Amino acid sequence: MSTHQEPTAQQIKDDKLYIEMGLSDKEYEDVTQVLGRLPNYTETGLFSVMWSEHCSYKSSKPVLKKFPTEGVRVIQGPGEGAGVVDIGDEDALVFKIESHNSPSAVEPFHGAATGLGGILRDVFSMGARPIAALNSLRFGDLQSERVQFLFEQAVKGIAHYGNTMNVPVVGGEVQFDEAYEGNPLVNAMVVGLIKHDDLVKGLASGEGNSVMYVGGETGRDGIHGATFSSTELTEDETEGVFVKGNPDLQKRVLEACLELAKSDALIGMQDMGAAGITSSASEMASKAGAGLELYLEKVPQRDPNMTPYEMMLSESQERMLIVVEKGREHEIEEILNKWDVPSAIIGKVTTDKQFRLLYNGEVVADVPADALAEDSPVYHKRSEEPAYYKTFQAERVEKPNVDNIQETFLQLIAQPSVASKEWVYEQFDKQDKDFVLRPGASAGVVRIPNTKKAVAMTTDCNARYIYLDPNTGGKIAVAEAARNLVCTGAKPIAITDGLNYGSPDNPEVFWQIEQSAEGISEACRTLETPVVSGNVSLYNETNGDAIYPTPIIGMVGLVTDVEHVTTPSFKEEGDIIYVIGETLPEFGGSELQKLLNGRISGQAPAIDLDVEKARQDELLEAIQLGFVASAVDISDGGLALALTESIVGEQLGADITVEDDAVTALFSESQSRYLVSVKQEHQEQFEAIITAKQIGQVTNEKTLTIKNNNEELLIQVDVHQLEDAWKHSIRNIMAN
Predict the structure, then answer these.
(1) Ordered DSSP codes for 643-698
(2) What single-letter DSSP state applies at residue 724?
(3) What is the side-by-side order of every strand in the sheet holding 319-324?
(4) Is 330 a known active-site residue?
(5) Can 100 be counted among the known catalytic residues?
(6) DSSP string, 206-244
(7) In whole angstroms, what is the distance from residue 108 CA to residue 365 CA?
């Protein structure tokens, strides 16, 4: 034991030490009532992490109840390590998104790397083999040196961990805005594949069954990480809570756990994530209606003289907790030894529903498992519509004044938020035989081995729209994710959400949370994409300045036949180019507005979910029938960006005619729209399925030519100019 003397239970109460540990006066009082006595230092620590926002969702639980979580494909909704959906033939997808924002703000390489490491464990702890990873990143203005450092290091961290684990990063998104200057967001999503029968849950059941610790040793890193992630950052943040990952060890842990999942000696398995042993052990016991007794001297320790408090709150990486049938521990140990994964038996399952910790025979904590895992306080926070929202809603729609359309077009496609993210994804390994579409397409697509099927996946959120109008913006985030999947030939089937906001104690921020959840829920119901897992990250603010509300939508879709997979690039000279959907002068929160004004205001683009669903269904049918040569959704950056993405890939050109107002036609961000190309022989069949406006043809000229209806030339740029502006923008900024 450490020679450091821990405060007594009375001192904790008298000196209000529980407040620095993360409990409020009322919460501390609740703990004393639950226990019928004053909690000791270790017990106070257990409650402070398990009742933290990060672990308990105490402010967001009432909002999360709004989400639709059931559907014909849903096998496991929220509540386990990850969500599970059926994709036929006894195959299922296991997936979830997680944030690692606070650690990445201070230690971006390790913060981002361990963020990916943790979400990988959530997926393989359920017995699923991870087949793909995605990310969703937000940083401040990329011209800032600090932002460049954070961006570069976070991407390196993700690449290092993903590449070592041989899990391909197949897609994602990166946006830059001053709103994230103090609080970058690093969200990682992982998708795994499993057979229905191999699914494992995090349960600690069966009296006398053994509790085993698997993986890396426990050190002093990450102690109180969960409570650190539940508070606002300050400028001089120096807390030593940061952890480093070891992907080489995790690779062995992964293979061992996938083999364990097939053994009937295994009862349950869970990742030691936020709050380490405390969360995994208490949650597994509580879910099973059981209790646990742990013997802490048996916990493998990296640092000398660790106290029970330190062992229980450490967030050292690459660790799993498993429950094994009594008498069959040797079978499990054989598998772990085969993969060179350390393990130790550290406790047993009991039936008294108590979470009991012993150290060298002395009881150092004895609390109800349910009190930790299930019975945290739930807060119904005050909600208030912000004054800025009323102002923006009252603003008249004004078309921005553009003097030189060609110059503005080239400037806009070079803005870091919409420019090509090639600089990011070229750092990820590309060796994967099951890749169908790599990063850079509308969505990542990975083939399901030994079948014609593939899974498409994406992460999406335009936080500017959500700031302007959270309800509408929430709908748009779901709809855009679904459009991206449809463009690849996939039917959207379910989502995971990464909900990132400022402080819920601010009524205006809580209003953003409530309103965006309403919008997300409505879109999920209309588009038939239930929420099966997710993560909430609150208090993303620095010195009182909150980030834009950023609920990231991670969505998966099913491609029934890889022959249907479609890409954004135009394919052949003579193909007809269409715009599907109506274009209105909608510039609130747009790239053009930000480019010209340096800020955003006004109303977000409108969306009609019934129209959205009908167009998605029609386009998917046309793609599956083979009538669509290329497809990309028109969203951030408007038609200008969609044309750029369609041309640069195959080095073809296009002759385009825009009607009415060229600024609206090229730069509006109206919703439910697509840019598609169709071979001439499929024109009639395509037009019979979907209403679309013909705007031009694909050429061999390697030039984009745009005229108005009076044949006036508005834009004439060659592919190299487009490439230089769009493809090389981030690379050039980072090189300088």
Answers:
(1) HHHHHHTTT-EEEEEE-S-HHHHHH---SS-EEEEE-GGGHHHHHHHS--EEEEEE
(2) I
(3) 266-271, 319-324, 210-215, 343-350, 291-295, 354-359, 362-368
(4) no
(5) yes
(6) STTPEEEEEESPB-STTTTHHHHTTS-B-TT--------
(7) 35
The answer to whether the CB of 678 falls within 8 A of the CB of 628 is yes
Q: Are 600 and 594 in contact, with CB atoms under 8 Å apart?
A: yes
Return the residue matching tokens 């830059």.
Answer: 176
Q: Check residue 441 and report its DSSP letter.
A: B
Quote the CA–CA distance of 486 and 617 in Å, as a whole number.
Answer: 8
Q: In the numeric block, which tokens belong to residue 248?
A: 């080489």
The CA-CA-CA angle for residues 9, 277, 550, to 5°, reads 100
Residue 537's nearest CA partner among 46, 151, 55, 138 is 55
> What angle separates helix 25-35 from helix 41-50, to the nearest 10 degrees?
120
Q: Give, in order, the Cα–Cα distances in Å from 383 to each of 88, 153, 179, 346, 429.
A: 43, 37, 21, 45, 45
Backbone dihedral region for residue 702 (phi beyond 0: left; psi -120 to 50: alpha; all else: beta): left
Residues β-bridged to residue 175: 138
Residue 438 clears pLDDT 80, i.e. is over it: no
From 100, 110, 160, 564, the catalytic residue: 100
**Residue 416, both tokens:** 């870091």
What's the rounded Cα separation, in Å, for the pair 724 and 46?
54
Name the CA dihedral angle for 592, 444, 538, 608, rounded to a multiple of 10 degrees: 60
Minimal CA–CA distance to 172: which of 385, 425, 355?
Answer: 425
Spatial separation of the C-alpha atoms in residues 413 and 342, rounded to whole Å: 51
pLDDT digits (tens, 9 = 90+) for 23-62: 999 999 999 999 999 999 999 999 999 999 888 999 999 9
In angstroms, the Cα distances linking 697 to 59, 647, 656, 700 are 53, 12, 7, 10
Mean pLDDT of 611-616: 98
Specify the pTM: 0.94
